[in-house]
Design brief:
396 residues, alpha+beta, Elongation Factor Tu (Ef-tu), domain 3, Rossmann fold, six-stranded antiparallel β-sheet, five-stranded parallel β-sheet, 24% helix
């Protein structure tokens, strides 16, 4: 299998500067920006700008000696390029449907000067008989100067009240955002988290996580110190025709919920002006059925968009794998390896993984076995996908 790349333009060394207006969010949309890319990435950049509502005012090409001239980018390979023989080995793939990270908001609020948000709601996400405690918590972001804005796939920091054993203020903890940039209320002034209370045994005593317990116990109306947003690893591609494979365990479902709401919630689709037309496939791992977070929403999306969304569950204490053991997410990946690899062969496919760090080795083993069955080396392929910005991992 090859991960596609545009060989016809790889040898062109020219650099192009695209002058664009109305690209970005908030105040940034008013400013002119200049983005410089090699010729091989020019067409992708122009497509991204168009999809994000930007207006290109000029394209300047380098003359190779530091000068520039206005130019119209080529849209088709020349006859020489079209007839050139393919190289013996495919080069590393270039980013597919590249999303510029320059306009993604980062660190609007820092630990020394956090934003003070107000809790809007706090409710349990798990059903009767579930293991542990997981809550959906929403904060009001109104009144910030500047406004705390974020995009799907980012995280925020929470600084819990109180002090540690040394009498110092608690340090922040990062949590993946579970709401789209518009918030659950579609008003653009809230942010939601999916938080599991951390509990562990030490010397025969049950220890509760400081920040997770603080959040799960917090009441509506309480104020919370918030930092961020942070993170550019888990951003969605701008292409409406992209394919998205999602691998999540536990609260790792948070960014996946943001993607799926952006793709399939009617209000989101109308507000975004972004209509997902690709294939989305969620693999969700949980110990018991009552621990499947946001399950009813995902089932609804699968019914409403059967051609665009597939939902596969791995419920470890209720289902068995092919060997008779517990069914984990890596077992589902192995079962569906042929279909997954067929999707990965498409340069529009992105893979997102989020959850406990312990899930990574199992997923790697499953992908390595599936790759080996096709005569491929996963240890070589995965870095290629990562370089192409098509393999996204956030584990903790």
């Amino acid at each position: 299998m090859r991960v596609s790349t545009d060989r016809a333009t790889q040898s062109d060394g020219r650099m192009f500067t695209v002058v664009v207006e109305s690209l970005g969010v908030g105040r940034q949309r008013q400013a002119e920006r200049r983005i410089t890319v090699p010729f091989s990435q020019l067409q992708g950049l122009m497509g991204t700008i168009a999809r994000q509502g930007g207006r290109i005012t000029a394209v300047l090409s380098s003359d190779g000696q530091g000068g520039t001239a206005e130019a119209k980018p080529e849209t088709e390979p020349t006859a020489t390029e079209a007839s050139a023989p393919a190289p013996a080995a495919a080069p590393a793939p270039t980013p597919a449907h590249h999303v510029s990270h320059a306009d993604v908001p980062v660190n609007t609020y820092k630990p020394k000067d956090p934003f003070i948000g107000t809790v809007v709601e706090n409710y349990s996400l798990v059903g009767e008989g579930a293991i542990g405690r997981v809550n959906h918590i929403t904060f009001d972001l109104s009144g910030g100067d500047p406004q705390l804005q974020y995009v799907e796939g980012q995280s925020i920091g929470i600084i819990p009240d109180g002090t540690d054993a040394k009498g110092k203020p608690h340090k922040l903890r990062l949590y993946s955002i579970a709401s789209t940039r518009h918030g659950d209320n579609m008003a653009g002034n809230t942010v939601s988290l999916c938080v599991r209370q951390l509990q562990y045994e030490k010397d025969g005593e049950t220890i509760n996580g400081v920040c997770s317990t603080f959040l799960c116990d917090i009441e509506p109306g309480a104020q919370v110190k918030i930092t961020g947003p942070v993170g550019k690893e888990m951003l969605l591609p701008a292409d409406e025709d992209a394919n998205i494979i999602m691998l999540a365990t536990g609260t790792g479902i948070a960014p996946m919920r943001t993607y799926l709401r952006r793709m399939f919630e009617p209000a989101e689709r109308e507000t975004n002006g972004w209509h997902f037309r690709g294939k989305a496939w969620l693999f969700m791992g949980a110990p018991l059925t009552p621990n499947l977070l946001y399950d009813a929403d995902f089932e609804h999306y699968q019914r409403e968009f059967p051609d665009n969304f597939r939902y596969t569950k791995a419920i470890s204490r209720e289902q068995q794998n092919a060997k008779g053991g517990r069914m984990y997410i890596q077992d589902r990946v192995l079962e569906c390896a042929d279909e997954i690899f067929a999707m990965i062969e498409n340069p529009k496919t992105h893979v997102y993984m989020c959850g406990l760090k312990g899930m990574e080795p199992g997923i790697d083993e499953a992908m390595a076995a599936a790759a080996a069955a096709k005569g491929l080396d996963w240890s070589e392929l995965r870095p290629q996908l990562k370089k192409a910005e098509r393999w996204h991992v956030e584990t903790y």
